[in-house]
Amino acid sequence: MQAMPRFEDYPFQITPLSELDGGGYLITFPDLPGCMSDGETPEEAIEMGRDAFTAWMSVYIEEGRELPEPRSGGPASGKFNLRTPKSLHAKLARQAEAEGVSMNTLAVALLAEGLGRRESSGR
């Protein structure tokens, strides 16, 4: 039986949903057809996306299907260093604590949200 792949190895996109579509944020996985979820916030969309990812992969593994490899957009390791002003660092720390998430999870959600808005506006 195949091992469960790591959520962190697969790229995902977070897109804001219009009020007409119910608001919130949609998470999709370009490498996993039909694997998607949503949430009221980007953080919740990622949390729900993790559940959708696990369910999607579990079905493929149970059925003995070949799991898609994560696409490589280049030599991305999933890690990079970012220097911020102390004031921004403090704001991020307070916001992460208020939401009960790590600063890393919050930063990923905020970056994904910003990229989703940029992509949906055609920039």
TrEMBL record:
Residues 21-71 form the HicB-like antitoxin of toxin-antitoxin system domain. One of its GO terms (biological process) is regulation of DNA-templated transcription. InterPro entries: Arc_rbn_hlx_hlx, HicB-like, Ribbon_hlx_hlx, TA_system_antitoxin, TTHA1013/TTHA0281-like, Uncharacterised_HicB. Gene3D superfamilies: 3.30.160.250, Met repressor-like. It holds the Pfam family HicB_lk_antitox. This is HicB family protein. It comes from Solidesulfovibrio fructosivorans JJ].
